[in-house]
Structures are given as structure tokens and as C-alpha cells.
Specification:
Layout lengths: L4 H6 L1 H35 L9 H15 L3 H7 L1 H8 L5 H25 L3 H9 L4 H35 L6 H11 L4 H29 L3
Protein name: D-methionine transport system permease protein
Subcellular location: Cell membrane
Keywords: Cell membrane, Membrane, Transmembrane, Transmembrane helix, Transport
């Protein structure tokens, strides 16, 4: 069966609901990724060798933890975090449950992007701030973050797009959203109309997000 426009209209309430669930999962996990991942990325950078808060123990522990989580394929992480998900949201299915795994996957991902963005800053700028007696907090707030802002914004964009892919994958275990719709209708029922619609929605969503991210990054880049 090919594309059936009438069939799409009949299922439009389900499609709209799934799209809303996808946006919910992305929004929640992105917010948590930024709140936790941004300071984590900063700590990974400033505790590195030769920097003003050098600490090999903290750097090694955090680096190992971040790499460990990032090394686990997301589909395996989804299953491994079921007990934690049950504890936090009292459910293992639905968008709220999927948001737990999405957040855990997104935090180390975004943290590494933040760290990489900070590494692109000219070391001379940091050394000059240290030389004039700036406190670590002042260096982070007034030097590191403003200088790395365009790269961090691009990192947010990359993280959002990765979350779109991850959220679709969450549908395999009943996480809701576009992926869940594609699995239930497109795969189990061989519904080509739903498969085409979900693919188009995901492509359009990613294109819009990438364009917005690029525009925002260029708009705030004063270098």
C-alpha cells in the first residue's frame, strides 16, 4: 500500500499527539542536559592540566563517568535504566519515562561539546584574566562563557538533533512520540502512510532546528 491521504487525515489526531510527545521528551531532556551538562563541561575543562582549577582526580573521575555513559548504545541504556525510570516517574512507558533515559544520554554528550567549545578559546585570554587577579568564578562567567557562546549554541543544536533521533528510538520500548507511532503503525501494521508521514515530520523538524541553531549562533558571534 502506498501513500493514502485520507488515511493520514483519519490518523491525524494520533500523529499530532505523537508529535507533541516528541517535543515534550526533547524539551525536558534538553533542559536537564543544559542544567547539568553545562557546569559538568566547564568542570571538565577547568580541572584539566595547566588550567586554573587543575585537579587530576576530579578530571579523571568525571571523564571516566562521561565516557562510560557515552559508550553505551542508547537502546541498551534505555533498558538498563528501567529500574531508575520506575523509581523516578513510577512508570517505564510513555514520554516522561523516556525522558529519563534521554536526559542521561544527553548530559555527557552536551558536556563534552561544552568542553570542546571551551578548548577553542585562546589560552592567552585565560592567562591574562588569571594575571589580573580574576577569581575562578569571574573567569568562567566573564571570559569562558562569553568566548565559547557560539560554540555552545551550536552544541545545543547538535544535542537537540541527537535527541530527536534518540526520542524516535525510545518508541521501540513504548516511549511514545513519533518513533512509537512508526513502530506501532508503520512496522507492526505495515502502514506505509504512517511511515512516510513520520519520516517527513522528522526530516522537517531537524531541518528547522538546524537552521534556527545556525542563525542563533551567527547572530551572537561577535568575533
Amino acid at each position: 500500500m502506498g501513500f493514502d491521504f485520507q488515511h493520514m487525515l483519519e490518523l491525524w489526531p494520533d500523529i499530532s499527539k505523537a508529535f507533541g510527545e516528541t517535543l515534550y521528551m526533547i524539551g525536558v531532556s534538553l533542559a536537564i542536559a543544559i542544567v547539568v551538562g553545562l557546569p559538568l563541561g566547564i568542570v571538565l575543562f577547568v580541572t584539566d592540566k595547566g588550567l586554573f582549577l587543575e585537579n587530576r582526580v576530579i578530571k579523571s573521575i568525571l571523564g571516566f563517568t562521561v565516557n562510560m555513559v557515552r559508550s553505551i548504545p542508547f537502546i541498551i541504556l534505555l533498558v538498563a535504566l528501567i529500574p531508575l525510570t520506575k523509581l523516578l516517574v513510577d512508570s517505564t512507558i510513555g514520554p516522561a519515562a523516556a525522558s529519563v533515559s534521554l536526559s542521561v544520554a544527553a548530559i555527557p554528550f552536551f558536556a563534552r561539546i561544552v568542553e570542546t567549545s571551551l578548548r577553542e578559546i585562546d589560552k592567552g585570554v585565560i592567562e591574562a584574566a588569571v594575571a589580573v587577579g580574576a577569581t575562578p568564578w569571574m573567569i568562567i562567567k566573564d571570559v569562558l562563557l562569553p568566548e565559547a557562546k557560539p560554540g555552545i549554541i551550536q552544541g545545543v543544536t547538535i544535542t537537540i538533533i541527537s535527541l530527536v533521533a534518540y526520542s524516535a528510538m525510545a518508541g521501540v520500548v513504548g516511549g511514545g512520540g513519533i518513533g512509537d507511532l512508526a513502530i506501532r503503525f508503520g512496522y507492526y501494521r505495515y502502514d506505509n502512510t504512517i511511515m512516510i508521514v513520520t519520516v517527513v515530520i522528522l526530516i522537517v523538524l531537524v531541518q528547522i532546528l538546524q537552521q534556527l541553531g545556525d542563525w542563533t549562533s551567527k547572530a551572537i558571534d561577535k568575533r
